[in-house]
Amino acid sequence: MSIVHVSEKELYAKLEKCMAGERVLIDRDGRRFSARIQLARAMDATVIPERQLLDNSGDADEIDSITVPYDAIWELEIKGVVYSRQA
User: Which domain of life is it from (predicted)?
Assistant: First the structure.
């Protein structure tokens, strides 16, 4: 896996074009967690935290998704390449 450091603008452009299922790293209120994109829009994304996916033993529609603004997303992984936003 390779890591590419990108600007905030470059990361946002990649997020707008990404497919469902791509992995992201989110920082919410100082708490970081991995999630999978369900739907990306103009300035926010609906994601499912990976912990919920791992802990779920029921139907897929029982998993709660959350909406996060792009500025809470620090990394995006596409086909083994991690695009990491520069601080």
Answer: Bacteria
Alpha carbon of residue 8 to chain centroid? 14
Task: Please give the sequence-ordered ranges of beta strands (E in DSSP) within 1-87, or none if there are none.
Answer: 2-6, 23-28, 31-40, 44-49, 66-69, 73-78, 81-85
b/e per residue, 48-71, with b = 16+ CB within 10 A? bbeebeeeeeeeeeeeebeebebe
pLDDT at 60: 60
Q: Are strands 73-78 and 31-40 parallel, antiparallel or unpaired?
A: unpaired
pLDDT recorded at residue 32: 95
* pLDDT-flagged residues of the chain (< 50): none
